[in-house]
C-alpha cells in the first residue's frame, strides 16, 4: 500500500481512535534514533530474501490453537502478529518474522529473536516508552510507522499487528497470504495481551481496532497482488 492510499485510512483512524498524529510522528523519529544508535536495524531487501510463494500470517484469535495443533505450516514463510508468537513457541514453531508494537510478551519476542526471528517493530504515539525500553534489546529489527515513512522506517500500510502482517507479506511479494487465527468477532484471544489468562469478551477500543483491521484487509483483498485466504 502506498502512502497516498494509506493516508485516508490513517486520517479516519486518528479521528475515530482519538490518536495524536504528532505523537505518532515523534515515535517514528525516536525509533529511528534507537535503531541507528544500536545498529540493529535491517532493510526490506533483507526480509525479501526469506520470501516464499505462500506466507502464513498468524493472528491471536481463539481459533489459532486448533490450527496450530492440526497443521505443520512447513510450506511457507511464517509471520506472527505480536501475541501469536507466544502460541507458536508453545507449539515449537519459530516464526520467520514477528510484527509487533511491543505490547505482547516481550520475553517470548526476545527468545524468538535470539533463535532467528526478524522483528518488525511498529512505532506509534502510545508505545514510546516500550520502544525506549525494548527496541535496542533486539537484533535484526525492521522499523515501521503509521505516519510518513523515513529512510529506515517503513510504512507498508495496515493498522493492527495482524493486518500489518498481511500488508508486509504483500510488500515482500508473496503470491498468497493465508491468515490463521484471524477470527475478529466478539472474543479476543488470550495471547493478545500479557495480562489475559483466558479468551475474553471484546472491549470498546479493541472493537474499533478490529473494525479497521477488517476494512484494511478487505482493501488488500481487492487491491493487492497476493491472494488472501483464511484457514
Ligand atoms: N479474535 C482475535 N483476538 C485477537 N487478535 C485477533 C483476533 N482476530 C484477529 N486478530 C489479529 O491478531 C492480531 C494479534 O495481535 P495483538 O492482539 O497481539 O496486538 P495489537 O494489534 O497490538 O492489538 P492491541 O493494540 O489491542 O494490543 C491483532 O492485531 C488482530 O489483527
Ligand atoms: N497511536 C496509536 N497507534 C496505534 C495503536 C495505539 O494504541 N495507539 N495500536 C496499534 C495496534 O493495534 C497500532 N497503532
Ligand atoms: Mg501488539
Describe the structure.
The chain is of the alpha/beta class and 231 residues long. It starts with a helix and ends with a strand. Helix 7 (128-134) links the parallel strand 4 and strand 5 (141-145). The chain contains 9 helices and 10 strands. The chain has one domain (3-230): sialyltransferase cstii, chain A, CATH 3.90.1480. It has helices at 3-17, 21-38, 44-48, 64-70, 84-90, 106-115, 128-134, 161-172, 204-223, and strands at 54-58, 77-81, 97-100, 118-123, 141-145, 153-154, 176-180, 187-188, 200-201, 227-230. Residues 19, 24, 101, 124-126, 146, 159-161, 209 line the site of 2-amino-6-hydroxymethyl-7,8-dihydro-3H-pteridin-4-one.
Summarize this structure briefly:
InterPro entries: HMPDK_MptE, MptE-like, TPK_catalytic_sf. By secondary structure, the protein is α/β, with parallel strands linked by helices.
Integer tally of domains: 1
Q: CATH topology, which one?
A: sialyltransferase cstii, chain A
- The number of E-state strands comes to 10
Which molecules are bound in this entry?
adenosine-5'-triphosphate, 2-amino-6-hydroxymethyl-7,8-dihydro-3H-pteridin-4-one, magnesium ion
User: What is the tally of helical segments?
Assistant: 9
What distance lies between the first and last C-alpha atoms, to the nearest angstrom? 24 Å
Largest sheet: 8 strands, parallel
The ordered H/E elements are HHHEHEHEHEHEEHEEEHE
Task: Indicate the overall shape.
Answer: globular
Poorly predicted regions are none
The first-level CATH class is given as Alpha Beta
**Average predicted local confidence, pLDDT:** 97
- Rg (CA only): 16 Å
**Quaternary organization:** single chain
Percent helix: 40-55%
Structural class: alpha/beta
Lateral strand order in the biggest sheet: 6-5-4-3-2-1-7-10
Range of strand content: 15-25%
**CATH architecture descriptor:** Alpha-Beta Complex
Domain 6-hydroxymethylpterin diphosphokinase MptE-like: 44-186
Pfam family, one: MptE-like
GO molecular function: 2-amino-4-hydroxy-6-hydroxymethyldihydropteridine diphosphokinase activity; ATP binding; kinase activity; magnesium ion binding; thiamine diphosphokinase activity
Catalytic activity: 6-hydroxymethyl-7,8-dihydropterin + ATP = (7,8-dihydropterin-6-yl)methyl diphosphate + AMP + H(+)
